[in-house]
Amino acid sequence: MDSLKTAFLSTTTTLHPIPSKQPKNLTSYISCNSITPDPWTLSDGNNSYKKQKKKPLSDDNARRIIKGKAKYLSVLRRNQGSHAQTPKWIQRSPEQMVQYLKDDRDGHLYGKHVVAAIRIVRNLATKTQGSYNMREVMASFVTKLTFKEMCIVLKEQKGWRQVQDFFSWMKLQLQYQPSVVVYTIVLRIYGQVGKIKLAEQTFLEMLEAGCEPDEVACGTMLCAYARWGRHKAMLSFYSAVQDRRIVPSIAVFNFMISSLQKKSHHKKVIFLWRHMTDAGVVPNHFTYTIVICSYAKEGLLKNAFEVFNDMRKSQFIPEEVTYSLLINLSAKQGNWDKSLNLYEEMRCQGIIPSNYTCATLLMLHYRNRDYQKALQLLSEMDKIKIAADEVIYGIIIRIYGKLGLYDDAQKTFEDIEKLGLLNDEKTYVAMAQVHLNAGSIEKALSVLELMRSRNIWYSRFAYIVLLQCYSMKEDVASAEVTFQALSKTGLPDAASCKDMLNLYARLGLLEKANAFIVRMRKDLVQFDEELYMSVMKLYCNEGMLKDAEELTEEMRKTASFKDSKFLQTLLMAKHGESRIIVNADESLAASKQPETLVLAKADNVGNAVNQPNIMALKMLLSLYMENGDDGKTNHIVKILLQSASGNVAKAQSIHELVIKLGDRPTDAASASLITSYGRLQQLKRAHEVFSSVAEFLTSSKPIYKSMIDAYLKCGKPDEALMLYNEMIKKGIKVDAVTISVLVNAMTSYGKQQESENIIRKSFQEKHELDTVAYNTFIKAMLEAGKLNFASRIYEQMLTSEVVPSIQTYSTMISVYGRGHKLTKAIEMFNLVSSSDVSMDEKAYTTMISYYGKAGRSQEASLLFIKMREEGIRPGKVTYNIMMNMYASVALDDEAEKLLQAMEKDGCSPDSFTYQALIRAYTVSQKFLKAEETIIAMQKKGLCPSIAHFGYLLSAYAKHGLMKDAERIYGELTRAALFPDLECHCSMLRGYMDYGHVEEAISLFEHVSESVQPDRYLLSSAVHLYRFAGDELKASSILDYMNRLGIPFLNTLEIGSKMIAS
Question: PPR repeats: which residues (predicted)?
């Protein structure tokens, strides 16, 4: 094992030149070739070389060519590293040269006698055991090999028998000295071939010889045990090593935990990990990867993330498999946000996800019903060329099925078959489920039949889907056969039993249904609430009162149904009270106590269960009507009427009933019903209620108000405006709240003119407006850009003696600031400061923002300090505005201090904060700090965007540092951030300004087809092609610009900054 070699076993000695202050000459140093794969003739050590005069060269450039070639060879040798084939000369002193000649190496790693010994012992592998005598074979080498050379011969052997025989001969030599080093060599070779017994005997021999095992020897034995899966012996030996207070190296620990993990001994991996950290052994990348995997396999998410965080703190970048395991484990434990954050972090590191990771995330989005993100992930997979496998295709089919895109699901299924990927039973079942949800029972059955014809065995889940098909098809015989096959795989699940029971009930096969219920109870099928409800429904419809009561009692004694609304409603309706068993252990004690202690008394029927289960009440109603129990029938009807409160559908039924009886519902009731439908996005039902009371609408302001609100919530602003105008025509006075809601909605839908008309009309009609209404008006006109009108609204507000709020003042500061009336904005701010109105962060932030836009950074800084002195804690938006202000005036030092203050306040910097800091550095020409900021972002889990790289790219290009600009441009692509038009233009501008014509043309041709036509991009191309003499291409692009109506830029110049630079 190379990782366990000691310094003593090093095969070569690096010879360094002896430093000397005197000039170098041939008498003090001899120049010779170092050991390389090329054979070189060595000097004899005598200075017989006579310097000859240089012959005159016929060509003056010949000397330059020779020197250039020598320089090229030097660079070539340096770039080739340790495997250089070019001559490499070193200097040796005369003493070193004499020793070199004595060794008689002739370009080999070892002397000739050592090489011969290695070859002779190796050749013994061709002979059978016992056919040779090692003493006779090695007779010529007695006294010629030193102890170190014998160790070298031993180390270079390939076969364990040769090692055993040579080691036996070696111990007979006078030069032999018992050493842990030689024993370690033997242990390593025995361990490599699996001769564990011999290795153990050798180790015991080493102890008997008085050699104390060191870290390397113990590590060699541990690795041998690990290599061949002798884990029990390995751990026992490790305990002995611990007793001797020997700490193995990280390489040995890695060998052990890797071997344990391959056999799924994850607990033992964790055991060794804890011992390793306690011993102070520093883990490496491989160690972290193995341990995180073991924690993940054991389901210990918290511990896995602790090790993962330690790995990141140690500056190790996790592999894709590590991210994949943590993403999958987080998803399984319901920590979906953590899974998505891990994926984003992985992509920021430039790691390409595997199919397994993508499949996990797709399934996560599928379960969350977030199909938009699933489609985005599929699009990203296509961009980074990740080929979908059968699992991913199966998830895609499920997603299409949920979205109702049945044709797309079928097409995907056919594509899988064409690609030859259709092998998994789950894919067939997924397609069958899609057909089943679409109501295409025959297609679902054909898919399952296709699976059977291809000799793919049905799983339990496949039988469940097949049973659903036959149940929907109402094929009793096939359903019964399928249910029997399902029963052979284990106890049937509650959902399959419900399907069979509902099938019998639909077809009126009551005898079979009753027999099936008896069989379920006999087989001890685990009932869920839905199965109980199906059985109870059958009993109630058939008037089986006794069976229904027995079933209710059985449910009551089941601890898992103690919180069931269905059960509590049954008990409430039957007894006028609710029996609640706290846990299963109380059921026995309850049977021995008086009825009054078992029942939880209720003050009235409505208080027993706040929201009764309507299905349970309907079942009981059917049961009592079937049995002719009028008293209990009336009792259930009464409960149903009381339960209508809060139920929109029931409320509408009662609403319609009142109208049919010729009475008028109250305005509050109608308005409440319309509001409820608006909240549920059911505009049609809301309009039906509105139309049903239309003849009563003369001055009913609440109903109009609710209907306007419903229109707006359902995205119908035009209809809401029409209803508002209808109110005005009918002379119905509109309140301030309705006007505010309407103006705000029109503004959010981009209908600024309609907002202005409503505002003007409210002033004309002299409606009573409050502070909120005026604030809404001012803000609407601010967003519409009608700043003068916004100012007049404020003046009208003061005239009407409506008290402004802090929101009013903040909005007016924005109005004046946007209108470049900074003086008035300052006056407004000072007015608020001197009044009794409490200032908030927004007012300060708005004022700071406009100070910054006006270039008055000093005033902005003072105001920021004042804000903090007032006890107002700046938020992230305020900090970002300050950062941008400092960036615009190149105050990068102030920006750094602000970032530190932000972190000290507990306000985490976001992407915009770092973007402003990068901008500050680039404006100050501190490009290295800008790059360090991007790296710091990534370490904190924030993904840089194109804008972050764009500032740096533009700055490099502007100052002619095109190599750095090209490097940043390449990093964008590696980070899966495709450069936008602005990046392309920055690179092109840099190339043009500094005369890099070929690079500029190459860039244009590379990006021209992938970006939208741009004036600067196309104009630059025309100038570049003209400069390069390609008038044909220049004319072609110019004609293209003319056809699109894009004006040509004549002022562009190539190399305009070359002189300045």
Answer: 179-213, 214-248, 249-283, 284-318, 319-353, 389-423, 528-558, 700-734, 770-804, 805-839, 840-874, 875-909, 910-944, 945-979
